[in-house]
Amino acid sequence: MASLPGVEPSEQITPAELRLATRNHGMPLEALAYDVTPAGLHYLLIHYDIPVVDGEAWRLSVGGSVARSLSLSLADLRARPSVTRAVTMECAGNGRARLSPRPISQPWLLEAVGTAEWTGVPLRDLLLEAGVDDSAIEVRFRGLDRGVEGGEAQSYERALPVEDAMRDEVLLAWGMNGAPLPPQHGFPLRLVVPGWYGMTSVKWLSEITVSADPFEGYQQVRGYRLRQTPDEPGEPVTRMVVRSLMIPPGVPDFATRERLVEVGPCVVRGRAWSGLGAVAGVEVSVDGGVSWRPARLGPSVSPWAWRSWEFEWDAAEPGDYELCCRASDAAGNVQPLEAPWNLGGYANNAVHRVPVRVE
Amino acid sequence: MASLPGVEPSEQITPAELRLATRNHGMPLEALAYDVTPAGLHYLLIHYDIPVVDGEAWRLSVGGSVARSLSLSLADLRARPSVTRAVTMECAGNGRARLSPRPISQPWLLEAVGTAEWTGVPLRDLLLEAGVDDSAIEVRFRGLDRGVEGGEAQSYERALPVEDAMRDEVLLAWGMNGAPLPPQHGFPLRLVVPGWYGMTSVKWLSEITVSADPFEGYQQVRGYRLRQTPDEPGEPVTRMVVRSLMIPPGVPDFATRERLVEVGPCVVRGRAWSGLGAVAGVEVSVDGGVSWRPARLGPSVSPWAWRSWEFEWDAAEPGDYELCCRASDAAGNVQPLEAPWNLGGYANNAVHRVPVRVE
């Protein structure tokens, strides 16, 4: 495997990966404490540069295979009936840097997730107003962010099948956590597709194009595919697979992030989510995955957001432990002990393991 | 040098450094476009975990060598006369990962900076109300964040000489950019010491202790010292040395962050700051530092914040270029081509170099 292009057998991170890691950031796992992730703690993955957009001059165009093209200002969009939905969003590459050999891209460990309250207009309402042709199969979304990827200069662009674009929960969001979108989350407008990995929720949206042809842009046919080799077409990455994460208990060592827990009762808390069905259960192991016991599930924050869980651990004996959590969903999916490898490092939902020392 | 503990001769980043880099984050350099950094884009360096604090139950104590101890709620502090100051803050370790051999800690490249509008009460007013004893030499600040560092369990704690603590510009801030402090920036209250590196501006503040003895805690006598070897005491890191950064022009390649610029006129923009005197000038080189021409300085955002600059570059010929910028301050300091090495990787203000390809 080590001879494949774009993968790295070493545990050490390359300078190019560090350039990505100092820009993009995860949600520190202690922020799993919040139902809704405070702005600035939500994960960020930005392919190119954050555009500086003049909200007064900006317009959204809706065109292509429609009866009536639309051109809307931010004020037009804000004047329409709006909805607010709490949505958990995860980067498709979350966990990539834990794979071996390691796919070379943004080197996420585990933290590329967050939950925000997005406010905006249902995409369906705009598509119905524009009138989608019977010939249409996809809706394409283009952002204002530009860069080079796979050797091609491009705007960030993705497409959704019409039936997914017309789903009730899909939003064109102009607000996040009760405020206008921050620049880094797509000001003035972004797509939010609940249940899907974050690459789908195009930021800095400028053009929506209804199309009778499949989109063959880089982010659709090269990026975000589950492949074993660069030559195969692979399967598209779509919905988030089931995952749970815990708040690492105790206190950290600054340099290593290793955890120190005081002897005694310890409540372990976390969150779980799936884009394929409601969370059905969470189990915890305190012996590295040898034995498992059920955690107590709390409420979901919304139908599209993570569910809290907690587990009472009696850390009575000093020593070294490995805490693990794994979730299952209503569709019958369970987090694996090891996730299957793929070239892009996508959809890695292996159980979360946290070594702790009890003293 | 490579045999020193805590330094790494390799260009490759270790797994422990990656664990820090996925939590802490810099300000993507295109955000130098904003006078005041939007919340969520300001750099963050968090030694331990972000505490979850109940703002209703929290109190600040002011004690030690004072005539009257104080205990104040957040409401008490918000009811006092407040001031708002725009302040540029930089991490003392900014640039660390560019040093060779590389000190092992948070692996910053260049982006550990930001400017915020902090709102709060002058620290001096509280100290005057408490009545500082004549015997006092320092004021200590303790945060609610706890962890292990250098083998010691500790709260994050730093001290300032009384004369620095009494300066007009030093704030106890409860607001950032017009909103309550976000959790990651120190909710409900933090110290803000304009002109100093960020380690001084203790977050999640719980105790202020006026003292007749010098503080000998880890962050004062081990961390944040300029040393060549682990055994020497070294000099304390204090004020920010002069630095300029530019917005990398053109568009990036996703994987490498290398820049592509179109042939033609190109305005290069950036910011400059110093904690040792007003910014006096910025120069730009388009030939890797062989020749330099002055940039045009814009206004400072405030006496404590960065100053904008711009430079008109005629990128008339295709080819590879290395753009550089360097600032000088009113105290006569100039950014060096190479910064002196030290064991902690602090205060590295080498000129900013941006390779670009013109096509």
SSE order and pairing:
The structure is a homodimer of 359-residue chains.
Chain A: E1 7-8, H1 15-21, E2 59-64, E3 70-73, H2 74-79, E4 83-90, E5 102-103, E6 113-122, H3 123-130, E7 138-149, E8 152-161, H4 162-165, E9 171-176, E10 179-180, E11 190-192, E12 205-211, H5 218-221, E13 225-226, E14 235-236, E15 243-246, E16 251-252, E17 259-261, E18 264-273, E19 279-285, E20 293-294, E21 296-300, E22 307-315, E23 319-329, E24 352-358
Record keyword descriptors for this entry.
homodimer; 359 residues; mainly beta; Sulfite Oxidase, Chain A, domain 2; Immunoglobulin-like; 6-stranded mixed beta sheet; 24 strands
Task: Provide an overview of this structure.
- The structure is a homodimer of 359-residue chains.
- Chain A is mostly beta strands and 359 residues long.
- Chain A folds into two domains: 230 residues, Sulfite Oxidase, Chain A, domain 2 (Alpha-Beta Complex); 116 residues, Immunoglobulin-like, CATH 2.60.40.
- Chain A contains five helices and 24 strands.
- In chain A, the strands form six sheets. In chain A, strands 16-17-24-23-19-20 form a six-stranded mixed beta sheet, with no helix packed on it. In chain A, strands 3-2-12-7-8 form a five-stranded mixed beta sheet. In chain A, strands 4, 6, 9, 10 and 11 form a five-stranded antiparallel beta sheet that branches.
- In chain A, β13 and β14 form a beta hairpin.
- At the A-B interface, α1, β7 and β16 of A face α1, β7 and β16 of B.
